[in-house]
Amino acid sequence: MGSKWKKTSLQDLGVKLIDCDHKTPKAVEEGVPYIGIPQMDNGRINFDANPRLISEEDFIKWTRKANPQYGDVILSRRCNSGETVYVPKNSKFALGQNLVLLRPEGDRLHPEYFRWAVHGREWWSEVAKYLNPGAIFESLKCADIPKFEIPEPPKDVQIKIAKVLTNISDKIELNQKLNQTLEQMAQALFKSWFVDFDPVIDNALAAGSDIPEALQHKAEQRRQAQKLPDFKPLPDNIRALFPSEFEQTDEPIIGIAGWIPEGWKPTSIHDMVDTISDTYKLKEVDEVIFLNTGDIEDGKFLHKDYSPTVGLPGQAKKSIAKGDILYSEIRPKNKRYAFVDFDAKEYVVSTKLMVLRAKENINPLLPYFILTQDKTVNELQHVAEHRSGTFPQITFKELAKVLAVFPQGPELIDLFVEQYLTPLFTKKLASIEQNEQLEKLRDTLLPKLISGEVPLKSE
């Protein structure tokens, strides 16, 4: 069904095209993000997707010509040509190669509407019309982009369309930020209890116990923290679960300066999970849901589509079960991991995904939480990069190097899992499910609103 609105070219709508600098600035360890094609993520800029960082001096140079501002749309001319993302409020970054800015100027085009108009089916028809085939990449010419036509509803209808779609998108982003906040809170608590051993130091200070010389600086930090007006001591029943003495260990663990709480012990991921390689009986079914490494990301399952068992790739072999942890062997920094919280009888996964199953009396959320912390991911990525092979890879063997320090009794661990981890994952999974429904609603409404198939009356 075609659009009920007249279609107008970008140049007639007052959209200005601003090309990028056709060179790449030097990367630095700390600086301003330099956003490229890999950071374009389903209509938004993913600032967490490891962008190159550049110096403030280079940022000034690279934004003299193209300085992204709120209301702009970024368009990729190569590699997924035609893909767009909007520039959010209060953002600061430089524009990468093969990207251009599209800036609405004048009164005909509402910037928020423009953000959505470059996602509709009419937009992709325009991309297909002007796409130039290449030996390696298809591309769009800067001279052709202003000719692209999009539906032009009345201005007040543009505003209504933008409001509907932006409200849905804002709710999705709010849920994502809430999940990040909840996870950061749990990680901060885990670090305080099981890495920095703050409650043990607090107990040692209260009891007047000797604190090792190597931990004196940490003890002083805790003394100062206790003087702050917002300091909240642990409830007595929880503090009682921590010792008030330290003992030394030679294990290469995450404990501070080789000292760990008295009576605690280093625990490897190998002590918590087994690797499972149960072969799925593909000959007994006609179709399954196949998950490769790219089909999971940062706790999310990216599809639930069935595939015929005939013609599946050779690596489609492993069966999984509720409570399993899926963890990619390839490039840990890509965060290809997920927790199976559902009946997975119809799922088969790639041999490149480790299937980890918690040992008896181990809550699977605990090893999953440890394996997905940024510190663990970075350590495993470092290990992967120093193994011989065609690309950075780990195996179950390398997970033995992931160590934590825990008390030998179950009370404290059970409390952490039941009061903090379980509620976190319950809220996170509910939020992910809600976002999936919101994304479906948005993606269904978007082409119908842009085309006028779902009418929003003009004033």
Automatic annotation (TrEMBL):
A single Gene Ontology MF term assigned here is: DNA binding
Tell me the InterPro entries matching this sequence. Restrct_endonuc_typeI_TRD, Restrct_endonuc_typeI_TRD_sf, Type-I_RS_S_subunit
Pfam families reported in the protein's UniProt record: Methylase_S
- Keywords, in A-Z order: DNA-binding, Restriction system
Q: Which residues form a coiled coil?
A: none
Q: Does the keyword DNA-binding apply?
A: yes
What is a biological process (GO) this protein takes part in?
DNA restriction-modification system
Q: Where is the Type I restriction modification DNA specificity domain?
A: 3-184, 261-402
What the record says about family reads: Belongs to the type-I restriction system S methylase family.
The family database entries (PANTHER family) matched by this protein are listed as: TYPE I RESTRICTION ENZYME HINDI SPECIFICITY SUBUNIT, TYPE-1 RESTRICTION ENZYME ECOKI SPECIFICITY PROTEIN
- Descriptive protein name: Type I restriction enzyme, S subunit
Source species of the chain = Colwellia chukchiensis
The taxonomy runs: Bacteria, Pseudomonadati, Pseudomonadota, Gammaproteobacteria, Alteromonadales
